[in-house]
C-alpha cells in the first residue's frame, strides 16, 4: 500500500509556509513539525517583520512544537524545512534531540553542513527533498528584491 | 580617570541575572546587552519554565535588545553572558552582527569554541570575565540538583 504521508507530502506543506513568508517580503523559508503523521507546528521566517534574527522558521517551529507537546524534547518528531538549517537552528535542533530533520535546498554558504554545526547523535538527517521548488522560490525572491532596489 | 563601566561591572549584572535563574531552578546563566554603558536587555535562562530549548539567556537578550533598538542588527552592542555561548546562541550572535561578546566561564563541552561555531567577523570576543563566580554558581546548581534526585 502506498503511504501518502511521505517526506514529499510534508515538504509540500513546508513549501506552503515558505510561500507565506514570500508574500510578506521575508526570505522564503517554511517549516513544519510532524508527529505520527500529524502536523503540530507550521511556521515561516519572520526576521524582517519581527526585527529579530532569531525568528527563523525552524526556531519558531521548535518553540511551537514544544509548547504543543508540553515538553522541550522533540522525541519522535520530524522537522521539515525548505532550506538547510543554519548554525543557530542546527544548534537549537541539537538541544531539542529531535528524531529527524528533512530539508529541501542546500545552503552552501551558511548551512550547518558547511559551517560544521553538530546535530544530536539521535537525529536522522535527509536533505534534498523538493530542493528545486525551494530553491526556485528563493531565487525568485532575491531577483525581485534586487530589481526593487 | 577610572571608568566604572568596565567589563567586570557589567558582568556582575549578568551574574545577578544568573542568580535569578538559579532561584527558579534553571541552569544559572544570565545575560545583559549594553549600548554606550546603558543596559538595554536583562535576561536569564528559562528553558525549564518555558519548556523550550531555545530560551537560553542570550537568545532572549538578542530578541529583547533588537526590540528595544527597533532593528535586528546589534551594532555597537556588547553582550555579557556568564557562560560561553553554545552553537545555537553563537549562531544567533553571528546573524545579529553584534560588536562584542564578553563571557564568563568556559563551556568546554558545549561552548562555541569547542563546537567550532563561527561568530561574525565584526564581533570582538573576550572570555574569562568573573569566570570563577559564574563557574561556582553552576557547580552549586548541579551539586544541589544531584542531591535532590
TrEMBL record, chains A, B:
**What cofactor does its activity depend on?**
Zn(2+)
Record Pfam families: dCMP_cyt_deam_1 (PF00383)
| Note describing how the cofactor binds | Binds 1 zinc ion per subunit.
> From what superkingdom does this record's organism come?
Bacteria
**Top enzyme class of this protein?**
hydrolase
Domain named CMP/dCMP-type deaminase: residues = 5-115
Q: Please give the InterPro entries that the UniProt record associates with this protein.
A: APOBEC/CMP_deaminase_Zn-bd, CMP_dCMP_dom, Cytidine_deaminase-like, tRNA_aden_deaminase
Q: Which GO terms describe its biological process?
A: tRNA wobble adenosine to inosine editing
| Annotated PROSITE patterns | CYT_DCMP_DEAMINASES_1 (PS00903), CYT_DCMP_DEAMINASES_2 (PS51747)
User: Could you tell me one molecular function GO term of this UniProt entry?
Assistant: tRNA-specific adenosine-34 deaminase activity
Keywords (A to Z) from UniProt: Hydrolase, Metal-binding, tRNA processing, Zinc
Catalytically driven reaction(s): adenosine(34) in tRNA + H2O + H(+) = inosine(34) in tRNA + NH4(+)
Q: Tell me the active site.
A: 58 (proton donor)
Q: What is its EC number?
A: 3.5.4.33
Which residues take part in binding Zn(2+)? 56, 86, 89
Report the function annotation for this chain: Catalyzes the deamination of adenosine to inosine at the wobble position 34 of tRNA(Arg2).
Q: How does it assemble?
A: Homodimer.
Family (UniProt): Belongs to the cytidine and deoxycytidylate deaminase family. ADAT2 subfamily.
Protein name per its UniProtKB record: tRNA-specific adenosine deaminase
Upper lineage: Bacteria, Pseudomonadati, Bacteroidota, Flavobacteriia, Flavobacteriales
Supply the gene name.
Answer: tadA
Amino acid at each position: 500500500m502506498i503511504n501518502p504521508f511521505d517526506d514529499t507530502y510534508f515538504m509540500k506543506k513546508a513549501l506552503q509556509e515558505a510561500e507565506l513568508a514570500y508574500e510578506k517580503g521575508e526570505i522564503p523559508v517554511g517549516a513544519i513539525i510532524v508527529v505520527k503523521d500529524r502536523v503540530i507546528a507550521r511556521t515561516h521566517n519572520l526576521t524582517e517583520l519581527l526585527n529579530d534574527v532569531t525568528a527563523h522558521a525552524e526556531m519558531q517551529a521548535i518553540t511551537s512544537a514544544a509548547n504543543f507537546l508540553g515538553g522541550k524534547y522533540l522525541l519522535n518528531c520530524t522537522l521539515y524545512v525548505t532550506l538547510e538549517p543554519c548554525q543557530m537552528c542546527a544548534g537549537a535542533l541539537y538541544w531539542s534531540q529531535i528524531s529527524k530533520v528533512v530539508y529541501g535546498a542546500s545552503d552552501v554558504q551558511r548551512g550547518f553542513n558547511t559551517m560544521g554545526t553538530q546535530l544530536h547523535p539521535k537525529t536522522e538527517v535527509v536533505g534534498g527533498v523538493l530542493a528545486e521548488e525551494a530553491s526556485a522560490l528563493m531565487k525568485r525572491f532575491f531577483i525581485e528584491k534586487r530589481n526593487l532596489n
